[in-house]
Specification:
It is built from 11 helices and 8 strands. With about 300 residues, the protein is an alpha/beta fold. The chain has one domain: Luciferase-like domain (TIM Barrel, Alpha-Beta Barrel). Strand 5, helix 6 and strand 6 form a beta-alpha-beta unit. The longest helix has 17 residues. The two termini are about 20 Å apart. The N terminus is likely disordered. This is LLM class flavin-dependent oxidoreductase. InterPro entries: Bact_Lucif_Oxidored, Luciferase-like_dom, Luciferase-like_sf. Keywords: Monooxygenase, Oxidoreductase.
Length: about 300
């Protein structure tokens, strides 16, 4: 289940691991990563989404992870929901929830890459309003409401009551205010190259304020992700990964962002974890930049876990 941060800085932060979904790999790597994450100390296993990229299908990898793990919680980080049909996505995610026996948390957002929308012939405009409408549609689908009065319900019903928890990938104040009406928390995407203490503290403050303004009495789950690399050629690997991933926004921005990705030593990784923890976040998703399962062992050694 989702944990919740207290008002002050939390003494611990859950450490989650992301599958190397964005990098080309095959059956062997999926097996080793899923089993290694499930056997390790990781709180969650995350699967991100891109369409116009070399990445694997998010729902396919989620289904594989559901079958290959027993303990770890599964996350989407994040589903670009307005690029999907909401009923179909509700069906897919409910299926994963059943395959994992109720271990799924669904991170959703609108994304910022028009190319991914164009690749699936989805409109790019009015993304936030469409997201809100789709959340309502998915929850109705999970509750057994037919998509049309003359149709049967779309199953299967999820294991978790009311469906998997929904976490928003909101960044700005308007998006946070909207998310406060339906989300269990916020998955912040501003720290991917290097977490900044002041920025994360500001995010936490603004999210909690949005929850209060929406009349919420529960505390939002706060999570964020970072790219990192350890082992041989870690610095070069991290820089290459960041540049390739962000090149869609132009070489100049991609280079600047890649240059700011500095978590490529055990010390830098430990400091990043401390920064996220001290900001009061509940969970940190580590995003590996290699398909080598040995990165799991290197990470555990670096963090002493």
């Amino acid at each position: 289940m989702l944990s919740h941060a207290p008002e002050a800085a939390s003494p611990v932060v859950d450490i989650a691991m992301t599958l190397p979904t964005m990098l080309p790999h095959g059956r062997t790597e999926v097996l080793e990563w899923c089993r290694g994450i499930d056997e390790g100390p990781w709180s969650s296993l995350a699967v991100p989404e891109r369409v116009a990229y070399t990445s694997h299908s998010m729902t396919v990898q989620l289904a594989a992870a559901a079958a290959l793990t027993e303990r770890v919680r599964l996350w989407t980080t994040i589903v670009v929901l307005p690029s999907h049909n909401a009923v179909r996505m509700a069906k897919d995610l409910a299926s994963v929830d059943r395959l994992s026996d109720g271990r799924l948390t669904v991170g959703v957002g609108v994304g910022g890459r028009e190319q991914d929308y164009r690749a699936v012939a989805a409109p790019f405009d009015r993304r936030w309003q469409r997201l809100d409408d789709q959340i309502a549609t998915m929850r109705a689908t999970w509750a057994g409401t037919p998509p049309e009065p003359d149709l049967d319900p779309v199953g299967p019903p999820p294991v978790q009551p009311d469906g998997p928890p929904l976490v928003s990938g909101a960044i700005g104040p308007k998006a946070m205010a909207r998310a406060a009406h339906w989300a269990a928390g916020i998955d912040d995407g501003t720290s991917i190259t290097r977490p900044d203490a002041a920025n994360l503290a500001d995010v936490a403050t603004r999210v909690r304020a949005a929850w209060t303004e929406a009349g919420r009495t529960d505390k939002p789950h706060l999570s964020t992700s970072i790219w990192y690399a350890l082992g041989p050629d870690a610095e070069t690997r991290l820089h290459t990964y960041a540049f390739d991933y962000l090149r869609i926004f132009g070489d100049e921005l991609a280079t600047a962002m890649a240059d700011s990705a500095t978590i490529h030593t055990p010390k830098a990784l430990r400091e990043a974890v401390d920064t996220v923890r001290d900001a009061g976040f509940d969970e940190l998703f580590l995003v590996p930049t290699t398909t080598d399962p040995a990165e799991l062992d290197r990470t555990r050694e670096a963090l002493g876990i």
